[in-house]
Amino acid sequence: MSMARWTSQLEKTHAKLAGSTSDLKTLRNKASKLRKAVKHGKEQKEQAMASVRKKILDQQSVHHLMQKGVFTEETRNVVCLLVKAGCSRNLIGQVISTVLKSAGITAVGNISRTSISRILREGYFAAQIQLGYEMKNAESISTFHSPTYSYRTPGLQ
Q1: Domain hosting residue 30, numbered range
Q2: Cα separation of 53 and 34, whole Å?
């Protein structure tokens, strides 16, 4: 009987060993798949980051003078600055594209002399509206007029 008992225990142990071996094989396969998934995930992440970096660089290397048919605020500010600096209205478009090109930025669109005049006129009217608003909301306004100072040019009466 003791031999039968040992034999049955040996068979049970062999069965456990076979089960453990198959479990070990399954777990090793899962671990291998997880390592591959992690490696693939890192590669995908690096590719996505490279793609985003490239897209950002492409967007930074292009300047759109207009968005949705309206000159951007940056374009308007540059136009006003160039006019104040004494640049001819006929040359402002060329100056903008040349400066952007020298910085490695591609200018998309162009700006005409009439558009420049319109931008300046709109800026003037906006300044007048702002001045009226500030005067309306001011507590008091002081003005200066000297009776001895003539605004007329001497010799022209």
Answers
A1: 1-60
A2: 28
